[in-house]
Amino acid sequence: MPEERITVEVEGRRLGLSNLDKVLYPAHGFTKREVLDYYRRVAPAMLPHLRDRAATFRRFPDGVDGEPFYEKNVSRHAPEWVRTARLTNRGRRGGEETLDYPVVEDLPTLMWAANLAALELHVPQWTVGPRGARKPPDLLVFDLDPGPPADVVDCCRVAETLSDLLTGDGLTVYAKTSGNKGMQLYCPVRTRSDERTSEYAKAVAEELARRSPETVVARMTKAIRPGRVFIDWSQNNTAKTTIAPYSLRGRAVPTVSTPVTWEEVEACRKAADLLFTAEQVIERVEEMGDLFGDIAEHRVAVPAR
Predict the structure, then answer these.
(1) 216-217/229-232 β-pairing
(2) pLDDT (tens digit per residue) in 273-303
(3) Where does the record place the DNA ligase D polymerase domain (predicted)?
(4) Is 19 helix (H, G, I), strand (E, B) or coil?
(5) What angle, rounded to 10 degrees, do the helices at 107-115 and 32-46 form?
(6) Using an 8 Å Cβ cutoff, are 139 and 187 in contact?
(7) Among candidates 220, 230, 207, 233, which has minimal Cα distance to 305?
(8) Confidence check: pLDDT of 113 > 60
(9) Which tens digits make up the pLDDT trace of 26-37?
(10) DSSP helix/strand/coil, 24
């Protein structure tokens, strides 16, 4: 069948959309039209966490049952109004590569990404300036990854202890689900050094692993992770990205990386307590607003440790 295409206007930008009835989540019957509608509705809460950040797309052109791929370099077919940031990184083979990253700063760009079946949007813990220069990190992140049979409930217990340690150091801590099996904790920070957040996060993770070796690990070695929660501090490496707040995930069900309250973290007793679908997230935002909405107001210098 020929590809179905329509042209729409989004905030004054003309955008071509295709295959709106294509099912991207077969087990759930969730279509590309519904993906676009989700991102349209969640955009007011999501866009502040994407703005000025060089995004990496994880695209699922054949749906979540197909083979996904990561895309950093903006396609030559991208609309001319899509903002990009030209950044030079170390390539996989040790050399340098220069790529034009998309910067998702408005609704038309978010709709363009969704139309590419970029179900997942990943961003770094730093921003770029008006001319594309990379700025120092403004976020500190801890990715809590449970090793089966541990699950998100175990992550919550570790998150509570980790939050106590971080707040004791003067940081403000925000929590969100990964939309998969774990969760992430964020702290807004100020630093002039690209390495400072990573150094601090590593020291904190290792301290918690020493305190609670039966439940926490700070090393990626898979052999030591079953039944424990791995605190992945390496997400603070400037070359790494983390799933963005409010991003869909490429799982069987259209789950979302969802900001949560500390009351919800403390009350979690089963994995389903912190698993939210696209429709549930829209309801949460309408009722609770953006739980990360004031994150930029609480930046402090990265503590010494």
Answers:
(1) parallel
(2) 999 999 999 999 999 999 999 999 999 999 9
(3) 31-292
(4) coil
(5) 150
(6) yes
(7) 207
(8) yes
(9) 999 999 999 999
(10) strand
Q: What is the pLDDT of residue 4?
A: 81
Render pLDDT for 130-139 as a digit per residue (tens, 0 to 9): 888 899 999 9
Neighbours of 2 (CB within 10 A): 4
Tell me the C-alpha distance between 28 and 119, whole Å. 15
Cis bond before residue 149 (omega within 30° of 0): yes
CB 39 within 8 A of CB 47: no
Answer yes or no: are the C-beta atoms of 184 and 49 closer than 8 Å.
no
Dihedral angle over CA of 53, 167, 44, 236, nearest 10: 20
Q: How far apart are CA 272 and CA 300, in angstroms?
A: 34
The pLDDT value recorded for residue 223 is 76
Asked if residues 241 and 126 have their Cβ atoms less than 8 Å apart, the reply is: no
Averaged pLDDT, 207-234: 92
**Nearest partner of 169 among 193, 142, 151, judged by Cα:** 142
Assigned token pair, 286: 């309408």
Length of the chain: 305
Q: Report the amino acid identity of residue 35.
A: V
**Tokens 């329509």 -> residue:** 6
